[in-house]
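Known limitations

Files may contain more than one protein. Parsers should not assume a single record per file. Below, a two-record file is shown to illustrate correct handling: read the sequence, read the token line, then continue until end of file.
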Amino acid sequence: MLVLGFDPGTATTGFGVIEYTSGRLRPIDVGVLLTYPDMTLPDRYLSIYNDVNTLLDQYKPDTVGTEKLFFYNNVTNGIMVGGTVGVILLALAQRGLPWAEYTPMQVKMAVSGYGGAPKEQVQANVVRLLGLAETPKPDDAADALAVAICHAHSFKLGGIGMAPSGRGR
């Protein structure tokens, strides 16, 4: 099963592609989708949408997971990141791909066994679980791999998420 994970953002959206077969995880690709401060917000969303479609066309994942939007004080930033999630979901819906979202605590729990794990511990476990030589940079890329790992385990167990009609798990 090929799993694509996203850590959504407006300027930087992390992505991680992993293969999950017979309980084994194998890294396929990791990186970030970038937009720039001089771009209008609609142009940023269009850029992210196009980049997401490129990833979907290239890897043809079986399922996709995103980190759940979580913010405290900066409502404006939260709304803008919500738009990023929206364009990701649009691309997924156009392909009928199943999707789920996970809170940061769920991702930490799945990768490190502790929902309050510090970022460094989560990243170290991503490196260990995927047999990587080093932690992917920037943090958004490593976080996206953590989301993909979390989703692979949850999806395999028939866990949370939404599957469009006509597509079983």
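...continuing to the second record:
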Amino acid sequence: MANHIEIPFSKFHGLANDFVVAEARGLPRSLAQLARSICERHTGVGADGFLVVLPPHNKKYQARVRFFNADGSEAEMSGNGVRCVAAFLVARTATKGILRIETAAGVKSLHLVGSERGKWTFRVAMGRPILKPAKIPFTGSQSTSPVVGLPLETSCGPLPITVTSMGNPHCTVLVTDFGAVDWLRLGREIELNPLFPHRTNVEFVKVLSTKEIEIRFWERGVGETMSSGTGSCAAAVACILNRRTRRKVRVQTPAGLLEVTWPARGEVTLTGPVELIARGIYHYRG
């Protein structure tokens, strides 16, 4: 007989990139199986990801979080997801100022810059982008760092790619017209390219000006999403490396705007909204 567990949850979205958030206490051992179940949009709560909030290893921080994709795989980091966790903590404890949250990609600092009922805006210190291929990891270039404009063989022919990491791997493709490229097919294909040992997130980017870009997202372990925090950061970094934009960039996603800044020799910051969708009890039968 399957175990029946009642799991309290909150659901948030960061520009339509939606997440179910729950505390770790009382959850079943197989978090990957739970993530697949709770993220299923027909028989579960439905989400792009499942975020598990745990006590921090270091007590000077507010929390620790594990990020699970809808397919049950675990991610190192999520820019939209970590903002949702911050909103979860603020809503629960009325914490103000700076929150520091432990992730597999390091401690992230989040500054609450605006709030109203059920809505928050955070500025996230995302850290320095990782540009060395071995640390991304990416095996297609052992000597070149950063990897900028490298031709990648695809079913649609060679595509120039820029490869980075924001704690999780990213492959950025610059395009002039989203309608002229089968980006959903290519996103699925590039995610699984063996040159990315841990698979990769893929961003297709149209440069609108030196201050603004537009993106379509294919997320590792999820598929198409309406926005991505780390994807927006990686895309902005790629555009800066390709000398297409300035170091402060407005990012147009299908769901709205994010802002990314990468000062010279500094860390990337991401500013964007979070909104509470629902709270409830998930009846899990594992």
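Parsers that stop after the first record will miss the second one. For reference, the second record is described as follows. The CA atoms of residues 74 and 203 lie 19 Å apart.
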